[in-house]
TrEMBL record, chains A, B:
Coiled coil: none annotated. It comes from the Bacteria. This is Molybdopterin converting factor subunit 1.
Automatic annotation (TrEMBL), chains C, D:
This is Molybdopterin synthase catalytic subunit. One of its GO terms (biological process) is Mo-molybdopterin cofactor biosynthetic process. It is an enzyme of class 2 (transferase). Converts molybdopterin precursor Z into molybdopterin. This requires the incorporation of two sulfur atoms into precursor Z to generate a dithiolene group. The sulfur is provided by MoaD. Belongs to the MoaE family. Pathway: Cofactor biosynthesis; molybdopterin biosynthesis. Keywords: Molybdenum cofactor biosynthesis. Heterotetramer of 2 MoaD subunits and 2 MoaE subunits. Also stable as homodimer. The enzyme changes between these two forms during catalysis. It catalyses: 2 [molybdopterin-synthase sulfur-carrier protein]-C-terminal-Gly-aminoethanethioate + cyclic pyranopterin phosphate + H2O = molybdopterin + 2 [molybdopterin-synthase sulfur-carrier protein]-C-terminal Gly-Gly + 2 H(+). Its EC number is 2.8.1.12. CDD domains: MoaE. Residues 130-152 are annotated as: Disordered.
Amino acid sequence: MQILYFAWIRERIGLPKEQVRTDATTVNELVAELAAREERYALAFSDLKAIRVALDQELSDFDAPLDGVREVAFFPPMTGG
Amino acid sequence: MQILYFAWIRERIGLPKEQVRTDATTVNELVAELAAREERYALAFSDLKAIRVALDQELSDFDAPLDGVREVAFFPPMTGG
Amino acid sequence: MASPDIRVQEAAFDPGAELSAFTPLAAQAGAGAVVSFTGLVRDLAGGLSRMEIEHYPGMTEKALRKIAEEATTRWELGPVLILHRYGAMAPEEPIMMVATASPRRRAAFEAADFLMDFLKSRAPFWKKESTDAGESWVEAKPEDEDALSRWR
Amino acid sequence: MASPDIRVQEAAFDPGAELSAFTPLAAQAGAGAVVSFTGLVRDLAGGLSRMEIEHYPGMTEKALRKIAEEATTRWELGPVLILHRYGAMAPEEPIMMVATASPRRRAAFEAADFLMDFLKSRAPFWKKESTDAGESWVEAKPEDEDALSRWR
């Protein structure tokens, strides 16, 4: 599974993307796995209210299942326009 | 007093403007005077709901006084934009 | 704040050229949001050969200036443009344009919307359409007058 | 109806040139009303040296297209333009633009307003400001998210 990070989440984790093997069945489980890895991940995911998630490039929820998902992206609320 | 006509009112009366001597004290009185003149005026002023009036280039009402007014304009509802 | 740019003219104009000139003024005034509205001659019934716009020369600019000033008291605005043609024009030609600028996008949108609602029903312009069937004065729509109540 | 013109680009653009190109398309589609919104880099706190916009390349165009298509199902629209830059830009430069066209002025206004509300909170762009004091990511405003409820 490909994981992408944007904006300050990318900066905190120090990576724009990475390939991850996981048995997580929901976004929440995936976040818990990532946060448990290292301090920088824990820091990046410390406040989920400030984070949005997209599954295969569609905005989604943290309790959404990961069945068949190939790309997960984490980013702060959008500020375009 | 200068009187101006616009759009179909100008066309019905057949004049863009005219100088008028009047003792009318309100727009309503002036309209009654004009309508009494000739058929084309009567026709032009037959439906006052379809007419707007401006006194010295400010939108006004038919019961407004004419004291000191130098220019009266009659026209249909505006259709710009 | 600069005074509103009000133009009543017979000559054709290019809305894009106007927006190109307006945008830097908006930026310099600290605005982050620019809204423009352009009205085009539309061939509603088919067969429109031309549109003629009559106006009330002495009153028109005064009425437009009053509408623009009302907008600048209601919203925090940068530059304001109101440009309206009169005389003869062909289908698809631009008739008029307004542009607003503000630090806030909602203010820019609302002010442009407000300018259009008041311009429609309070500025002395009258449209006459020429078609194969003859000439006719465009009738005001009741909803145009009703639209003013949105701003009470 | 032509499909929406969606562009996500690093290059600067001229809003006036875009409006010049858009307006004849609107006229040909039978629209009498054209609304444009342009967003400019604004030096809010003073001392902004540049703005950097990050986006999510795979998702961005898809999200913008979805927003444009939603607008075309809600309103009777002619052509629709959404143009958004990414990368580095200087104060006062145009960041993005939307343009809408409709036979009815209210529809053109509402559709542009709708596009902006959804673009703000549903298209994957993130702004970072560089000032003398350092760099910081622009925070989303709660009212931007709240604005979406206007369109339920």
